[in-house]
Amino acid sequence: MNVTYTCPHCESQNRADVDETSQTLRCEACGQSLHIPEGAIRGNRVVRCLACPSTDLYVRKDFPQKLGVAIVVVGFIASTIAWWGYHLYWTFGLLFATALIDVVLYAVVGEGLMCYRCGAMYRGFENIEEHGAFDLETHERHRQQVARLKQLEARPATRETISG
Ligand SMILES: [Zn+2]
Ligand SMILES: [Zn+2]
């Protein structure tokens, strides 16, 4: 079981192996440790996010997005070249093959859990379906919460003094 998360101190990506006995997540880049909330991992299940205060996670296909985009781009370029060379069968063959590869990849990749709030990804855990699929309302709630926090942080800390 492992988690991929973004360090809140230095914003670098970390991947850490975790189990029920894990207590902290240590950033490899800056050395700062995150305390894992007690009971966050029960057996082989993850109950809540380890990297942020959120308790909302959703099931997500563990599809490498960059790879998916790369396949589409390569397929598109190859079919365009074929089109320019008047190889009509190749053009449509390549487009079809590209789409097929994407579909097959999507079917074979596993599923993981993702945190609504911080985007941490959890892999190798059991019973992940109890967290449910992506829910737009929950997502929106977290997005607004994070935006509000940012606004608060941006506000100057000094109190306005009344002069007169
Ligand atoms: Zn860090
Ligand atoms: Zn989180």
Provide tags for this entry.
two-stranded antiparallel ribbon; 2 domains; single chain; binds zinc ion
Explain what this protein looks like in three dimensions.
The chain has two domains: 2-62 and 110-154, no CATH class; 65-107. The protein is elongated, with a radius of gyration of 22 Å. The protein has helices at 65-84, 88-108, 136-154; strands at 2-6, 13-17, 24-26, 33-35, 41-42, 45-46, 57-61, 111-115, 121-123. The mean pLDDT is 90. A five-stranded antiparallel β-sheet has the order 2-1-9-8-7, with no helix packed on it. The chain has a two-stranded antiparallel sheet with strand order 3-4. A two-stranded antiparallel sheet has the order 5-6. The chain starts with a strand and ends in a 10-residue tail after the last helix. With 164 residues, it is α+β, with helices and mostly antiparallel strands. The structure holds zinc ion (2 copies). Residues 7, 9-10, 12, 27, 29-30, 32 line the site of one zinc ion (ZN).
Tell me the helix content: 25-40%
Number of helices: 3
What do the pLDDT scores average to? 90
| Spans where pLDDT lies below 50 across 5 or more residues | none
Approximate strand percentage = 15-25%
Q: Catalogue the ligands.
A: zinc ion
Biggest β-sheet: count, sense, barrel? 5 strands, antiparallel
N-C termini distance: 63 Å
Say how many strands there are: 9
Q: What is the total domain count?
A: 2
Radius of gyration: 22 Å
Shape: elongated
The assigned structural class equals alpha+beta
Order of H and E elements: EEEEEEEHHEEH
